[in-house]
Amino acid sequence: MLKWFIPASIGLFVASALLHAFHAPVAWNFIVTGVAIIPVAGWMGRSTESIAAHAGPRVGGLLSATFGNAVELIIGIIALSQGMNTLVKASITGSILGNLLFVLGISFVVGGLQHPIQRFNVRAARNHASMLLLGIGVVFIIPAAFAAIHPQVVDVLSPVAACVSLALYLLGLLFALFTHREMLESMTEIAEPDGSPPLRLGVALGFLAVTTVLVSFESEWLVGSLDAVARQLGWSEVFMGVIIVAIVGNAAEHASAVWMAWKNRMDLSLEIAVGSTLQVAMFVAPVLLLAAMLMGQPMNLLFTWPELISMVMAVLLVVVLMLDGESNWMEGALALGAYAVMAVGFFLF
């Protein structure tokens, strides 16, 4: 079913590269480059599925989230080098909201329409929930709380929070992938429901690496056209970062999570969506802060109150939805409704 993705990916990539090289109108760049990401994301999802068949859903989901967030990390570093610090921080907020509410919401709806009740490992869900609450609290809430009373402490507290967050994230990987892997692993065997064998591990890893490179180029070209498109449409830099850049930068893993939910692989879908959020909060954001310090850019982990409140509400909602180890389309609709309200709020912000 995915055979047509190879010629489609190549054709659309060449078309977007030519439009970028010959400085075509930004609207065409924006549309063609955005469409070009879709078939590449399809092969990324296929590769992730095959890797999970060999290594388990946690490793497969971790790889997909890592490769997807590598794109966002590249975009963030490029934006930082151009002094777009507000855009970078807004994209961090957008990635967290997008993964937790938009991606997980669509995954629950799509999977729920195909399978009335979908189940996933409740122990893994609880582990994700505790890490989410800790990650958002340490990286975002604590610096904001202290800065509200003593603004000068944020420049010292932000690097400390970043280093602690990185350490906790690495410890979380050690816990989930090594010391307690069997407890958090899915209890069901991973197999192809349509009877087709998964790709060989080496081939799947190769496809994942190639598609990540292609998505990196496409994402960079798309972000390059966003500034002009935003000026034409009157969008703010915060809205661009929270909604547009976040969705574009994570398009590949978005498609992977929804595809897994459609195939009733909710452990893998949850691992991609929530695992990606954890990586953004506890790895990408601290790395971008440290990179900004090395570049001499004035960046900290102090976010606006609408961003903080939105992130906290998103985390609390998803924690409540995950703790029973089951999902359905109505729970997905709740998450999508919350995301829609927040998106409109940031558009008007």
How would you portray this structure in words?
- By secondary structure, the protein is mainly alpha-helical.
- The protein has one domain: Up-down Bundle (A middle domain of Talin 1), CATH 1.20.1420.30.
- The protein contains 13 helices and 2 strands, in the order H-H-H-H-E-H-H-H-H-H-H-H-H-E-H.
- Strands 1-2 form a two-stranded antiparallel ribbon.
- Helix 6 packs antiparallel against helix 11 (266-295) and helix 9 (237-249) packs antiparallel against helix 13 (329-348).
- Mean pLDDT is 80; it is low at 186-195.
Q: What is the end-to-end distance?
A: 43 Å
CATH fold-type name:
A middle domain of Talin 1
Strand order of the largest sheet: 1-2
Q: Radius of gyration, Cα only, in angstroms?
A: 19 Å
What structural class do the secondary elements suggest?
Answer: mainly alpha
Number of helices: 13
The CATH H-level superfamily is NCX, central ion-binding region
Number of domains: 1
Shape: globular
Describe the largest sheet.
2 strands, antiparallel
- What's the CATH class label? Mainly Alpha
The residue ranges in which pLDDT falls below 50 over 5 or more consecutive positions are: 186-195
Fraction of residues in helix = over 70%
What proportion of the residues form beta strands (DSSP E)? under 5%
In the CATH hierarchy, the architecture is Up-down Bundle
From N to C, what is the helix and strand string?
HHHHEHHHHHHHHEH
Number of β-strand runs: 2
| Mean pLDDT across all amino acids | 80
